[in-house]
Amino acid sequence: MAKKAKSRPSGGTPATVALTAAGTAFTVHAYDHDPASPSYGEEAAQALGVSPDRVFKTLVADVDGELTVAVVPVAGQLDLKALASAVGGKRATMADPAAAERTTGYVRGGISPLGQRKRLRTVLDESATSHETICVSAGRRGLEVELAPSDLATLTSAVLARIGRV
Asked: Average pLDDT for residues 80-85, to the nearest whole number?
């Protein structure tokens, strides 16, 4: 069950600070990140004992020259064509990792949809709404935040669309 954070947690990140400032109910989950892990999201799901369809990865794509955040379940993949369509674009490609890190202020594997240096338009896979809570990166590797998908959508002004595929 999520609880409301009252103050900046120890080791707080811009994501947890943003959640606290917004008065949003959330729970932080920390785990020991293995640098050799081939998939940050699957590692998080396994470490937290959470189904991979409830853990969402944050990917940054370039849609017609504009960086866009896609939040999809770690159990699947991002459908770039569907992402472009969801924001009225024609073509999407994965963003250059260095550009994604520079723009969001987070490192790859720790990019959160919340508290980004530059707020990017965001698309949340609509499968998130079938869960009471989902987990997304809290802003660094080995740290996840659990919150209601509706809160995530509100805080990021996300478009809900079917952008993930299994």
From this structure: 98
